[in-house]
What does this fold into?
Amino acid sequence: MDTEARPTERDRSSRPSGSEEIPDTQGPEGRSRFALVSWISEWLPGGRISLSLLICLLFLLLLNTFVVQPFQIPSGSMENGLRIGDRVLVDKLAYRFGARPQRGDVVVFDGTGYFGHADYIKRVVGVGGDHVVCCDKDGRIQVNGGSVDESTFLYPGDSPSTVPFDVRVPEGTVFVMGDHRGISSDSRDHLGSPGGGMIPVDDVIGRAAWIVWPAGHLTRLQRPGAYARVPAVEGAHG
It folds into this structure.
């Protein structure tokens, strides 16, 4: 009997799938990015955890610089809507891409050279071209000849203004006032200062959009409907 083992050809279709060679689908660019991340992780103290924290901090910095910025209310000039210590989120994209502040908006602006070396938060009462007057026979602010009912946001017991004024707001600027008129230092108090109390739109940082702290005061800041009834500027089109 022939006992010599005869070699037999294995069925190629029966090869285990695990023995197949896995193709490289990442490509040289993907491998380079992975190698860079690995190198940075090894270089940083704390490795991948530190890298993740660094990326989060960079994201927050970009968000704060270009999109939204927290702002703490420093005084009572915007009471009762905004109280001392409240924190608001300022939408820094609100007036980009051609948009402009509108009457009734609560805005944060850089007052350097106009109000003082600080950022301020006030309500826009007049925009470029508006004729703003204090006051009508009932003591209300007039914009372009129309009286504005500010009772929904004016501090209880305050009059719209104890300081009479009659101003024309130059194009590219806004006329601003605090809601607590009795203690607010605003455009009325700087009529004789450089700029005549007007704030250039370019110095407006953004629109206060939300009160986010304290949690019990969480509110979205809406534009009052009273300003929607203000007449258009004389000679304006559209």
